[in-house]
């Protein structure tokens, strides 16, 4: 593969009368975990929606796996996890994952695998409405993973989960990346930077840094990603 | 478009209904209660009120119920993010809407059978024409209600709006469809209006059955209702957006 998994040039997104993303450029190489970090309201979700092709009022060039974002041929190759769990509360875990498997062309055998991957096999026959918030978001993740897409766009998949589960998911993301899947994972928790190959720091609808954690710490002389973020923001305001 | 994804969507919607026993209960019981109320009210009337109006109500009550369920169901898909997720998958917009229509047609069929049985055997309604044809027309009318609900839900962004789309879309139709006053006795402009209203043909078909008119007359009206079903589905597909703000 000699192309970037995601390549964005001069992306602009308008919502209502407000420009929420202005002239954004990023490239994500294949087989990497790209962390999309930034405070809430910085445009992470809008950027992810533009990548999976459901955001309206988009201009600029968004190329995903070599095709324009939102192309029909991409729809079975891209998995999107929305920020709040998008599953049917009145269906069981298995029924939810099986339905999304049918939509994305996954084999029936993959359903149980996806449920096992998020550690919900014991709850397979439970209605989602009976599950806890963290369990619901894992059902939602299983529905995203089930067809084994080449690009995963995950909006805050680890928020609100206990540390053990968070570790489990990051291990899973690493395994997927090692297998050639590209992942774009957003978080407003800067500490999650340590799990990512590449960091895209966002603020006010723009990218303030597109780098690696090592380079970020070296250039800012900061001890953590959170501190580095503050340094960059202060430098930006001083300039 | 894909038959497999349409069928999977219909199956999923039916499974959701199956898990929601209370909704199914209300769906089956409420139209019977309403019809029973009317039958009781006119029990001692010298005119065969139930025999005349019963079939019309059989065309309208289920359609109203299905309209509400359809518009709330699709609104729920929008607000819960499941529609957004689906729009990133290969599902066609028509797969989604036809899947819903098929699922509601199955629900409508059950509802129509229960309600017709209740009207004929419990309330003692006499159907001059074929009761089987009446049941079939009730199903088609209920499917019309659900596809109108699917189309109307495109305009609703909140639950309050979705619920109000019923009085906005359906009550005017019920007013001029011939239930309250025969269409040919209305002021000319209202009669013209009634000619373009889907519910007018839904009730015309039922009236034809109640008056034991030839089956051809009934089928002509049913054909128009089916046309409206296709148009409202097409409108639903056209107003559904993959990309939203």
Q: Order of helices and strands of chain B, N to C? A: HHHHHHHHHHH
Query: Overall pLDDT of chain A, averaged?
Result: 94
Number of strands of chain B: 0
The coarse silhouette of chain A is globular
H/I helix tally of chain B = 11
SSE blueprint:
The complex is a heterodimer of chains A (239) and B (245).
Chain A: E1 6-15, E2 18-28, E3 33-37, H1 44-52, E4 58-64, E5 67-68, E6 78-81, H2 93-104, H3 109-117, H4 133-145, E7 151-154, H5 163-178, E8 182-187, E9 198-203, E10 206-211, H6 213-220, H7 225-238
Parallel strand pairs in A: 3-8, 3-9, 6-7, 7-8
Antiparallel strand pairs in A: 1-2, 1-4, 4-5, 9-10
Helix pairs in contact in A: 2-3, 2-4, 3-4, 6-7
Chain B: H1 3-19, H2 21-41, H3 49-80, H4 82-86, H5 93-122, H6 131-152, H7 159-169, H8 171-176, H9 188-195, H10 198-210, H11 215-239
Helix pairs in contact in B: 1-5, 2-3, 2-5, 3-5, 3-6, 3-7, 3-10, 5-6, 5-11, 6-10, 6-11, 10-11
Commentary on this structure:
The complex is a heterodimer of chains A (about 240) and B (about 240). In chain A, helix 2 packs parallel to helix 4 (about 135-145) and helix 3 packs across helix 4. In chain A, strands 6-7-8-3-9-10 form a six-stranded mixed sheet, sandwiched between helices. Chain A has a four-stranded antiparallel sheet with strand order 2-1-4-5, covered by helices on one side. Chain A is globular. Chain A is built from seven helices and ten strands. In chain A, strand 9 and strand 10 form a beta hairpin. Chain A has about 240 residues and is an alpha/beta fold. Chain B has one domain (about 5-240). Chain B is built from eleven helices and no strands. In chain B, helix 2 (about 20-40) packs antiparallel against helix 3 (about 50-80). Chain B starts with a helix and ends in a 6-residue tail after the last helix. The model of chain B has no long low-confidence stretch (mean pLDDT about 95).
